[in-house]
Design a protein that fits this description.
CATH superfamily of chain C: MetI-like
Strand order of the largest sheet of chain A: 1-2
CATH architecture of chain A: Orthogonal Bundle
Number of helices of chain C: 12
Structural class of chain A: mainly alpha
Strand content of chain C: under 5%
Helix content of chain A: over 70%
CATH superfamily of chain A: MetI-like
Number of helices of chain A: 12
Radius of gyration of chain C: 23 Å
CATH topology of chain A: MetI-like fold
Order of helices and strands of chain C: HHHHHHHHHHHH
CATH topology of chain C: MetI-like fold
Shape of chain A: globular
Number of strands of chain C: 0
CATH architecture of chain C: Orthogonal Bundle
Order of helices and strands of chain A: HEEHHHHHHHHHHH
Radius of gyration of chain A: 23 Å
Distance between the termini of chain A: 22 Å
Oligomer: heterotrimer
Shape of chain C: globular
Number of domains of chain A: 1
Chain lengths: 287, 390, 289
């Protein structure tokens, strides 16, 4: 049947790959070459490394990294919502004549390479770059080194990078909101503000959650945004950096693989939530 | 219908798992033991060079592209360079087979032992490398590769402090030594240490007077890590190997660097209007000075071994080494290119003379030796803790 | 006329916020493009314009620096092949999933959705490990990257096409069957043409996703000959880079925009021929799913 090639492919390259992560995480390592000796047979799985890593995550040095990652993601999400909701709302309901143009402008970042957008930011944030120059015009301190390894640079970078992914799904939801419900609210005498708070906002919550989840999930594994923007500062290290470091630069691939599994476990709830709601939507649409 | 579909899916998963179980069986029957042992035979003498392309693994900006172009012209082949960021990355990629190359352009002393034991590099046939006589004496029989059977030296350099003389008084750095980095609180965000777990912790150990930097004593390692971690809050320290461009460009004021970073910086990364007077270098006295060198070697599964030998020979030629040095800034281990020569030829400014390790410094140098899987793991874990934020 | 229209009409503050956002979103990219035209090495300030980094500089410009050209070709090759492979598999999977009844359909649906919700680093690590430990018969980096990209993008195709499938419904196919067409003919001659806007949209999304992919390409790369443009940009932040990097990014940007423009035009003409006028937002609505 038609779905067979797709399902087969995904099993071969996705399911098996994830299984490989487990095999490596619970396997051994070659003492000379420091490469992994994966344990394919579940009966041979060795959980000591995973145990150590879990211990470090909850009690040791990895706790700081995980907490920091959560904080960065939370702050970035807040930023995305603060910036993205008004924009999505305007585009969905208020744009009028310019809607097409606005939509094109909102979709454009999808077609621009993520790293190019970050490259653009590093150009701007150089000590002699435009951001400092503009600050200088307003007599604000203009010699700050933004690429210093400060958390706000990373958060701004994450927001800049991910907000387009937040706006578009939210826009879809807001556009599909039944305008009559909102008009009904106004007809019944509520002010614009009350209508928004009591009608529009609650109606948009599922869309808001979906957009948040789809934005936040990739952010958790991001390691290149902060690394690109801070040329290596321990202060902004996220889980993704630790994973990459363990797998690329050390002789402990099992630790890296274990971290990947832990990350997936932590994101499991979010992942399942998104999948379940999407399947439900699809079913509803197809009825 | 759904029954058979479910069966199909279930069977595919089983098949996948079986494949997984089968693979190591194959590996066990096959050559995994061979992979792990040292190779003892070289290629034969007098073979003709292959057609190429010659593939090289190297750090970024670590060989003069004009030298490469000259080699391409001379032998009528193409050269491809793959860049790696760290030494361990190269070893990991080679071991996992995820990179294929002929020449390893930048093996460090710590990794050569593993590469040899793991059968990843093969011994050299010196009949193809007559220029070997040009090499500095000490490096003809290095500690990491007795008799230089598997490697020829590429560049050598020492680890010290690079800094901006227009921002920090050289006298201050001379008197404080390594403490200058810890005291650089006026330059928050403009301080960096090398992105290398051994180098950074070695610096902390030397600062406290410990010269056995190859210790695997967990307490000493932890203390070193704590010391380096202080820098996070003290000076908002960065971790990278970009001192060679950051110090001339001014984004870094003081950093743990390699001696050659200053030479390279002076040669190619100063912005317009800035002279090399602003660059300064300090290093510990001989006996506490870590002098490292990178070596070149021939990879075990090289498809162009003869061409690779010719390339190694080419780089050991005096003129070629000089041309390479003029752009890369890292001193080749060639006897002719000593301090007097390079300063007279204008490659190194007089005030950066101390960037060229002297014969005495080389002879008394401290080396970073490989520590075995457990020892390395201790440093790696400490490093992971440091980069995680403390 | 609704007497309230005047009251809840334009919302100027919101408009301003939105357009400021658009500016903030796009201006840095324009600046990066402008910097690619610098005649000097500065990556932070504007210097007099020249095409030095595109073809002028004899060693470091796009035309002369082999590694840049290789990265560009790799990226385009990967994206092109990925489009050709992922789209048919994805379309077929969407059609198949829509008709799949029974309990296993949930599992299949879930399987299809998991890649979308999986962070890329998990993908990158998993694929890297599987290719180095299990599927060692694929030593070539480009092959690995292609397989990785396809795995990653199939799900996007499915989601986009399914949305359209739901909107179309089954009546057209059933009508064709009633008129005597076989199942396959009904799909080929009726359903696929109706799906063409969605198929086109998904081709574009696959292209954009593949071109932009960094994590998977980076983990699966086996050397300089398998670098892609995102990898080049990322590693350029480390080494002494020049505006040639900006030039590379600009060229990639122009190619992508050209592809999108062509696709939108084709999309519009297909839709118009099919009797629907999507309006200015129609084509793009297909993309946002």
């Amino acid at each position: 049947m038609f779905a067979v090639p797709g399902v087969g492919w995904l099993i071969a390259f996705f399911v098996v790959s994830v299984y490989a992560v487990m095999a490596v995480a619970f396997g051994g390592v070659d003492p000379f070459l420091k490469t992994s000796i994966p344990a394919w047979n579940p009966l041979q799985w060795d959980f000591t490394t995973m145990g150590n890593v879990i211990h470090e995550v909850f009690n040791g040095y990895l706790r700081e990294v995980f907490v920091r990652t959560f904080v960065f993601v939370a702050l970035s999400l807040a930023g995305c919502v603060a910036i993205g909701y008004p924009v999505a709302y305007y585009a969905a309901r208020k744009a009028g004549r310019h809607k097409g143009l606005l939509l094109a402008a909102l979709v454009l970042p999808f077609w621009i390479s993520y790293l190019m957008r970050m490259l653009a930011w590093t150009n701007l944030l150089q000590p002699d770059g435009l951001v400092n120059q503009v600050l200088g015009w307003f007599s604000l301190p203009d010699n700050r080194n933004w690429l210093d390894g400060d958390w706000y640079t990373v958060v701004i970078g994450l927001i800049y990078g991910y907000v387009p992914f937040f706006i578009l799904p939210l826009y879809s939801t807001l556009e599909r909101l039944d305008g009559r419900l909102i008009e009904a609210g106004r007809d019944l005498g509520a002010s614009a503000r009350q209508t928004f708070l009591r009608v529009t906002l609650p109606l948009s919550v599922p869309g808001l959650m979906a957009a948040s989840v789809i934005t936040v999930l990739p952010m958790f594994g991001d390691y290149y945004t902060n690394s690109y923007l801070t040329s290596g500062s321990p202060r902004t290290e996220m889980v993704g950096n630790q994973i990459e470091n363990y797998l690329r630069n050390t002789g402990q691939p099992q630790t890296g693989a274990s971290l990947v599994l832990i990350l997936m476990a932590m994101l499991f709830v979010l992942m399942v939530y998104y999948m379940v709601t999407t399947i439900r939507q699809q079913r509803a649409a197809e009825r | 219908m759904s029954q058979s579909r479910r069966d199909f899916l279930a069977r595919s998963v089983q098949l996948g798992v079986l494949l997984g179980a089968g693979a190591p069986l194959l590996q066990a029957c096959g050559g995994s033991d061979d992979k792990r042992s040292q190779i003892s035979s070289t290629i034969a003498d007098g073979l003709p060079p292959e057609k190429g392309p010659l593939r090289i693994i190297n750090y970024a900006d670590y060989v003069n592209l004009e030298v490469i172009a000259d080699f391409e012209a001379k032998y009528g082949v193409k050269v491809e360079i793959s860049t790696i960021d760290t030494d361990t990355e190269a070893t990991t990629k080679l071991a996992s087979g995820s990179i294929k190359a002929d020449v390893h352009h930048s093996m460090s002393g710590t990794s050569i032992g593993n590469l040899i034991a793991g059968g990843l590099i093969q011994p050299l046939n010196k009949s193809y490398i007559p220029n070997f006589v040009n090499v500095i004496e000490t490096f003809k029989d290095p500690w990491y590769d007795p008799g230089a059977k598997f490697s020829v030296p590429y560049t050598f350099f020492g680890t010290g402090i690079g800094y901006r003389t227009d921002r920090i008084d050289p006298a201050l750095v001379e008197s404080q030594g390594w403490d200058a980095i810890w005291n650089a609180t006026d330059f928050k965000g403009q301080v960096s240490v090398l992105d290398d777990e051994r180098e950074a912790f070695t610096m902390a150990m030397l600062r406290k007077g410990i010269t056995d930097v190859n210790t695997t004593d967990q307490k000493i390692i932890d203390q070193a890590r704590t010391d380096v971690s202080e820098l996070i809050d003290l000076v908002n320290v960065k971790v990278n190997i970009e001192g060679y461009k950051d110090i001339p460009e001014g984004t870094t004021s003081i950093a743990q660097t390699w001696s050659a970073d200053l030479i390279a910086g002076a040669a190619g990364y100063l912005p317009e209007g800035v002279t090399d007077e602003v660059l300064g270098f300090w290093h510990p006295p001989a006996g506490e000075y870590v002098v490292t060198n990178d070596s070149m070697g021939l990879l075990a599964n090289a498809e162009n071994p003869v061409l690779a030998h010719l390339y190694l020979n080419y780089l050991l030629d005096n003129e070629v080494a000089e041309k390479n040095f003029s752009s890369v800034g890292y001193l080749p281990a060639i006897a002719k290119l000593d301090a007097d020569f390079v300063i007279a030829a204008g490659y190194v400014p007089e005030h950066l003379r101390n960037c060229v390790p002297t014969a005495e410094e080389i002879a008394k140098a401290i080396y970073l030796e490989p520590l075995g899987a457990e020892g390395d793991a201790k440093y790696e874990t400490a490093w992971a803790k440091f980069t995680a934020g403390g | 006329m609704n007497p309230f229209r005047r009251r809840h009409g334009k919302a100027p503050v919101l408009a301003m916020v939105t357009w400021v956002y658009v500016l903030w979103s796009l201006l840095p990219v324009l600046i990066a493009v402008r910097i690619s035209l610098n005649n000097g090495r500065s990556r932070s300030s504007f210097q007099p314009m020249s095409f030095r980094w595109y073809w002028g500089d004899s060693t470091a410009s796009l035309l002369h620096d082999d590694s840049m050209r290789v990265a560009l070709f790799n990226t385009l090759e990967l994206a092109g092949l990925c489009m050709l492979i992922a789209t048919p598999i994805g379309v077929a999977m969407a059609i198949g999933l829509q008709r799949w009844r029974g309990r296993t359909s949930n599992a299949a649906n879930g399987l299809m959705l998991v890649p979308i919700v999986t962070p890329e680093i998990v993908f990158g690590v998993a694929l890297f490990l599987v290719f180095t430990q299990l599927y060692t018969g694929f030593p070539d980096g480009l092959t690995r990257q292609l397989l990785g990209h396809v795995t990653f993008t199939i799900s996007f195709v499915v989601v986009i096409v399914r949305g359209r499938l739901a909107a179309i419904g089954t009546q057209y196919e059933e009508a064709a069957r009633d008129l005597g067409a076989s199942r396959l003919q009904a799909i080929r001659l009726v359903l696929l043409p109706l799906l063409s806007p969605a198929i086109f949209a998904s081709v574009m999304v696959v292209f954009a996703t593949s071109v932009d992919d960094f994590v998977i390409s980076s983990f699966l790369s086996t050397g300089a000959s398998t670098e892609t443009v995102p990898i080049k940009i990322y590693s350029g932040a480390r080494a002494g880079s020049t505006p040639a990097l900006n030039a590379l990014a600009t060229v990639m940007l122009l190619l992508t925009l050209a592809a999108v423009a062509i696709a939108t035009v084709v999309l519009k003409s297909i839709q118009r021929r099919g009797g629907e006028d999507p309006g200015p937002t129609g084509g793009l609505a297909g993309l946002s799913g």
